[in-house]
Amino acid sequence: MSEPVDVDTRDSGALRISVRTAGIMLAFTLVFTALMAGTYKATAPMVAASALAEKLRLIGEVLPAGSYDNNLMADAISLPPTKALGLDDESRLWRARRNGAPAALVLEAAAADGYSGRIGLIVAVGADGRLIALRVTSHKETPGLGDYIDPKKDRNKSKPWITQFANLGFDSVPREKWRVKKDGGHFDQMTGATISARAVTNASGRVLAWTMENRERLFALPADGRYEESKP
Amino acid sequence: MSIYKDIAWNGLWKQNSILAQLLGLCPLLAVSSTMVNAVSLGLATILVMMLANFAISALRALIPYEIRIPVFVLIIAALVTVVDLAFNAFLHDLYLVLGIFIPLIVTNCIVLARVEAFAAKNGLRASTFDGLMMGIGFVWVIALLGAVREFIGQGTVFSGIEMIFPTLSGIQVLPESYPGFLVAILPPGAFFVLGLLIAGRNWLEARANQRLRDKRLHEQPPPAATAAA
């Protein structure tokens, strides 16, 4: 003869197990969240320092260190999302000065029409309206094909593709010629991989035109100020 | 000692995470376009697999059976985050190269599979060793896949190695005029090459089994003869 099962006891047993399991899950969650939070706290200053050094290194690539004498990191302003620069988010713009006079602007930009998505750029434009240099900061172009826009991947090490923009302005290459040769413009592209080159070329033209148009206002803003697009 | 031999053989060949279990294909196909990328992801995967197997083997007595999977996922995700942050802080140069691959490891189900199948049932040392061997098994296949795709796709080997060792540079094997073969670099090429690798492994396994069968057949007659006599 089997014992009659007490329904109440069985239910409270199941409940006890559920509560215990939930408690263990909670304990694990707390311990591992604490582990992640602790690591984040401990590494945050070092991560921030590395990110700053990385930014300075990128700026150093497009703007020679000797060409300005102010503290770039302190003389920055923020930009709202700007269509002409291809940016959907806030960005920073750094202003280089020499003896207090405007020397160059360094800004982030993007080309949305790469072969596979967005191509991030950093561009330095001189106060005289010439494009000093630009570099690709992020891209997903096809390895071995479109990725020559990044000088690290360019097989032509002595004169990478992207250096042909250096020190050109609309006075030497007119605005309507600021395209790749395939589109009837001035700049070379590699056969079979035009899309990446076209995206970077057109983006650099847009950035240069936007900067030329706004440079006086950009230089005049107080440090840490915020630029607002002028209403037409 | 033979248990370690078994673990090594399983990880490297018999239960190889890619060729036999077909696990972890998402990161595999995404980053095997060049050999250097492939090996970089593989090394990060080894580290995470060893850590995850170690941690879960150590904690296995505390984890109730019913909720083991969520707890495993929690532990693996936390470990990957910690590895990611630690790399960023202490080995920043290496992080610039490997950084994009580390979060991808979370999507690699081989980590969860080994934790569930091995670390949850075995001791600390065996579990850590299993993570190492499964990781190495992952690395050699993904390295081979990357090398083949890179060679066919752009005619080079070791391109991009200057990101890790600045003094070295990739080697152009095929002539500079080689036009490249785009399909090999794009994701479909990964499927083609992976398919060939798996077919190759199956062929080797089938041949080994056939030999074993033949050997047994040849050995069979003598005992049968004695039984008849």
Short description:
With 232 residues, chain A is of the alpha+beta class.
What can you tell me about this protein's structure?
The complex is a heterodimer of chains A (232) and B (229). Chain A is α+β, with helices and mostly antiparallel strands. Chain A folds into two domains: 1-39; 60-220, no CATH class. Chain A is 36% helix and 20% strand. Chain A has helices spanning 7-62, 194-220, and strands at 76-79, 91-98, 101-114, 117-126, 130-138, 168-169. Chain A has a six-stranded antiparallel sheet. In chain A, a hairpin with a 2-residue loop joins strand 3 (101-114) and strand 4 (117-126). Chain B has one domain. In chain B, helix 3 (35-59) packs parallel to helix 6. The mean pLDDT of chain B is 85.
What descriptive keywords fit this protein?
heterodimer, A: 232 residues, alpha+beta, 6-stranded antiparallel beta sheet, 2 helices, 36% helix, elongated, B: 229 residues, 2 strands
Layout of secondary structure:
The complex is a heterodimer of chains A (232) and B (229).
Chain A: H1 7-62, E1 76-79, E2 91-98, E3 101-114, E4 117-126, E5 130-138, E6 168-169, H2 194-220
Antiparallel strand pairs in A: 1-2, 2-3, 3-4, 4-5, 5-6
Chain B: H1 2-14, H2 25-31, H3 35-59, H4 68-90, H5 92-98, H6 109-119, H7 124-154, E1 156-157, E2 171-172, H8 182-185, H9 187-219, H10 221-228
Antiparallel strand pairs in B: 1-2
**In this structure, how is the largest beta sheet of chain A organized?**
6 strands, antiparallel
| Low-pLDDT residue intervals, each spanning 5 or more residues of chain A | none
Number of beta strands of chain B: 2
Number of strands of chain A: 6
Could you give the order of strands across the largest sheet of chain B?
Answer: 1-2
The total count of helices of chain B amounts to 10
Query: Which sheet architecture does the biggest sheet of chain B show?
Result: 2 strands, antiparallel
- Helix run count of chain A: 2
List segments of chain B where confidence is low: pLDDT < 50 over at least 5 consecutive residues. Answer: none
Fraction of helical residues of chain B: over 70%
* Series of H and E elements of chain A: HEEEEEEH
Order of helices and strands of chain B: HHHHHHHEEHHH
